[in-house]
Amino acid sequence: NLLGFALEAGRALVIALNKWDGMTPGERDFVKIELERRLFFVDFADIHFISAMHGTGVGNLYQSVQNSFKSAVTRWPTSRLTQILEDAVSEHAPPMVGSRRIKLRYAH
């Protein structure tokens, strides 16, 4: 599916649901619950409920696309990534392999 392709390619992601204005409040609640249930693994993606015909919700959509793009093209220095890795390892030690613990040294 399209969502899987975007994730596998490591692309930025913004989700927009159109025809939102044509739904009853009950249908809207159902769709929100289903989205949370089915798309739990993309909790980093902004979700927008829009009406292309009336233009509602579209203004915020453009801002999310810009933010996602900016986040996707941000470069982090190796030293900062290594520091994040060290912080994570200090909170949750890697598993033991035999009698030794795996050592994670660099992130890039």
Explain how this protein is built.
- The protein is mainly alpha-helical.
- It folds into 2 domains: 2-73, 3-Layer(aba) Sandwich (Rossmann fold); 75-108, no CATH class.
- The chain is built from 4 helices and 4 strands.
- The chain has helices at 2-8, 25-38, 58-73, 78-91, and strands spanning 14-17, 46-49, 96-97, 100-101.
- The protein has a two-stranded parallel sheet.
- The longest helix has 16 residues, at 58-73.
- The model has no long low-confidence stretch (mean pLDDT 89).
- InterPro entries: KH_dom-like (IPR032859), KH_dom-like_a/b (IPR015946), P-loop_NTPase (IPR027417).
* CATH fold topology of the largest domain: Rossmann fold
CATH class of the largest domain: Alpha Beta
- Uncertain spans, ≥5 residues at pLDDT below 50? none
Tell me how many strands there are.
4
So how many helices?
4
* Main sheet: strand order: 1-2
Shape: elongated
Helix content: 40-55%
